[in-house]
Each structure stands twice: as C-alpha cells, then as structure tokens.
C-alpha cells in the first residue's frame, strides 16, 4: 500500500550543496554503532567514507552520510544517512527514517545534498513512500533534476532496510530518495507513485530526460 503523497520544500539546499563536505572519523555512539554494524554488508568488504553535515539545531546532533563508493557497481555511489531518525515526526509510529540515495555518479555533491536534505527536513517531512521533495533548483551540477521522491532503497533488500533495531524499543527504517524532474514530481502528485513507476525509468541515472 502506497503512503499518502506529501510534498516538502527544501529551498536553500541548492545554495549550500557546493559548500563541500567535512570528512571525519566514525562517531562512537552506541545507537550509531548498532546502525553501522547492521550496514556492514552493504559495502561488500569496503569501508564507507563518513561525511558530516552540521546541525542547524543546537539541541540535535549532526547528520552523517555513509558514502559507499562503487556500490552497487563501479561508477556509482550509495549514501545512507545517520541522524535523520534522531528527530520525531507526528505522523510516524514505530520506526523512524534514515535516507538512502544511489546515483550513477561519483560526484560527492550528491552525498552533500543527501545530508543537507536530511538535516533540513528531519522532523518536518515524514519521508513516507510516495512523498515528494521540491529542491527548487538542479540538485547538482551534473543533472537537471530538481526534485526527489521517496521510494524503496535501490540497493537494499527488505530485511536490510526495514525495522532495524538500534536500541530498546528503538527502530530505524531506511527509505530511498530518488532524483526526479519537476514535471515528474507534479505527475506523482496528480497520479500517484504507482502510476509513475509503471512508466519505466532508471532510478540511478541522473542525466536521463524527463519521462512525462
């Protein structure tokens, strides 16, 4: 069953995407370590790079992006956030979300954008299946796409992304966010995600033309 479609605005994200990413050592937090341990199979033996996006809220920890190079294939990058789930949302019951983005690109601007979107919208966007996000400008310099849709992660099986236990009564579900064109976002808002999916499109190709 697809969730209700909601639209979030990420105005301002495009202005900071080019600001760069701070690479740091892994944080030693028990909740974070449980999450990292669960994801150890994603890298296929390689260690992810950990990128930090500072929090805009003084009482909330930063968002981190685990960047897996050449996953699932050479020339691709997969990023998974940690920190989005630290903030509650009124519509969420049970597991809280972290975000996963897989693109056919090695440009770290995509990982930077992922972290910025997660940090800016955590607590405001529920990130339920079918939700759309309007960035308001091309997400990076190598694409014309300016929107995102929440979908199942492209590189994870259901057991790997759903109901991850990170503490007593504390669960995380990883949701995929997929770059799309503005016209495609409007199509999803009018017709639903399932009808858009039936059109046939490549989830990781960030240079493709709009299909609507």
């Amino acid at each position: 069953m697809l969730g209700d479609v909601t639209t979030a605005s990420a105005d301002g994200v495009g202005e900071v995407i080019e600001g760069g990413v701070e690479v740091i050592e892994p944080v030693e937090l028990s909740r974070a370590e449980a999450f990292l341990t669960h994801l150890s199979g994603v890298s296929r033996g390689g260690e992810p790079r950990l990128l930090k996006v500072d929090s805009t809220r003084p009482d909330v920890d930063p968002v981190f992006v685990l960047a897996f190079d050449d996953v699932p294939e050479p020339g691709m990058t997969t990023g998974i956030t940690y920190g989005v789930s630290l903030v509650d949302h009124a519509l969420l019951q049970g597991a809280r979300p972290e975000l996963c983005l897989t693109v056919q690109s090695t440009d770290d601007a995509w990982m930077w954008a992922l972290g910025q979107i997660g940090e800016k919208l955590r607590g405001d966007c529920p990130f339920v299946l079918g939700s759309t996000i309007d960035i308001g400008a091309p997400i990076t310099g190598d694409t014309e796409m300016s929107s995102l849709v929440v979908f199942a992660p492209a590189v994870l099986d259901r057991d790997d992304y759903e109901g991850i236990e990170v503490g007593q009564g504390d669960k995380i579900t990883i949701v995929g966010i997929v770059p799309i064109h503005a016209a495609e976002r409007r199509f999803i808002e009018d017709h639903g995600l399932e009808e858009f999916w039936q059109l046939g499109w490549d989830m990781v190709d960030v240079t493709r033309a709009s299909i609507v």
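The CA atoms of residues 7 and 198 lie 21 Å apart. The beta strands are 7-9, 22-23, 49-53, 63-69, 77-82, 96-103, 132-134, 147-151, 164-167, 170-180.
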